[in-house]
Amino acid sequence: MPSLQARLLRPLLRVQRAYQGRMATAPIERLVKFRRRSDAITARLIRMPRGVAVEPETVAGVNGTWISHESAAADPVVIFIHGGGIFFGLTPAHRRAVALIARSAGVRVFAIQYRLNPGNPYPNAHDDCFAVYRELVGRGARLVLIGESSGGVLSLATLLRAKAAGLPQPRVCIEISPTVDFGFKDDRIWRIRDPFVHPRFVVEPHKIYVAGNDTSTPDLGPIYHDLSGLAPLHIVAGENELLAGEAARLEEAARRYGVPVEARYWPGMWHGWHLMSDQVPEGAAALAYIAGVVRAAAA
User: Among 89, 148, 176, 297, which is most buried by a count of CB atoms within 10 Å?
Assistant: First the structure.
């Protein structure tokens, strides 16, 4: 049973969902303005937890942000690949969620700020994520990889690229509400009634990034390729979110190729609930669970 806070929040989420459905087909200039306005509003509302340092840095020529608690160990290093349709960047809500994970797990996190659209179609974001991964592997640290939403395809593609290049896999890969196919060929994304996110708001921005390329390739459709030898997977998704079908596809594929996998589906939750940990207890519980997986990988 969802919490009282979650039940009370649902009517407000539905208003946002309806607005997203209209915005998804708006001219790109309107979406850019919407992105800037959203970031400005959330930056005023969201506060980082105490004792957490936020330091911008460029790794392998790619912008990013180190987020770490003052007591963080040097090893392992967590790489975080955010979602947002390759259109929305690393938001204040992402930074806060990552900070809570970093504080709870006692780790340093590098949140990649890969190149976004408009103006940076495939393979820019993919290349950025793999460049950071390869550089941090070269520094000798043990790695944990977290991919969120659009970062699901980006993280899985990074693992497949690492496998092809003979690079080591991370200790674990955590997939939060992951995309697994930028062609969105599974129709559950249209059938699941997510109370917060409209499917057009997910599908349309990815079309801009894909730019007509074949979405069955390992980069854009990793779900269709041999996943054997990849890092153990932990999948976290909302039971009622529009990407629950994508998460289930990944779980099935992992088992088919012998990849160790654990999946946790939060009852009644929508896409992005983990970013609302200050509003619903389910969000805080999801971040605590993810931090626990990171801690176990660091042991």
Answer: 176
**CATH number of the domain to which 120 belongs:** 3.40.50.1820
Sign of CA dihedral 184, 185, 186, 189: positive
User: DSSP string spanning the chain?
Assistant: ---HHHHHHHHHHHHHHHHHHHHTTS-HHHHHHHHHHHHHHHHHH--PPTTEEEEEEEETTEEEEEEEETT--SSSEEEEE--STTTS-S-HHHHHHHHHHHHHHT-EEEEE----SSS--TTHHHHHHHHHHHHHHHTT--EEEEEETTHHHHHHHHHHHHHHHTPPPPSEEEEES----TT--STHHHHS--SS--HHHHHHHHHHHHTT--TTSTTT-GGGS--TTPPPEEEEEETTSTTHHHHHHHHHHHHHTT--EEEEEETTPPTTGGG-TTT-HHHHHHHHHHHHHHHHHH-
* Number of compact structural domains in the chain: 1
Identify whether the C-beta of residue 229 lies closer than 8 Å to the C-beta of residue 171. no
Residues 144-164: tens digit of each pLDDT? 999 999 999 999 999 999 999
32-56 confidence digits (pLDDT tens): 887 888 878 777 777 888 889 999 9
Asked, for residue 42, whether it belongs to a domain, the answer is: no
* pTM attached to this predicted model: 0.96
Give residue 18's identity as a one-letter amino acid code. Answer: A
- Backbone φ and ψ of 135, nearest 5°: -65, -45
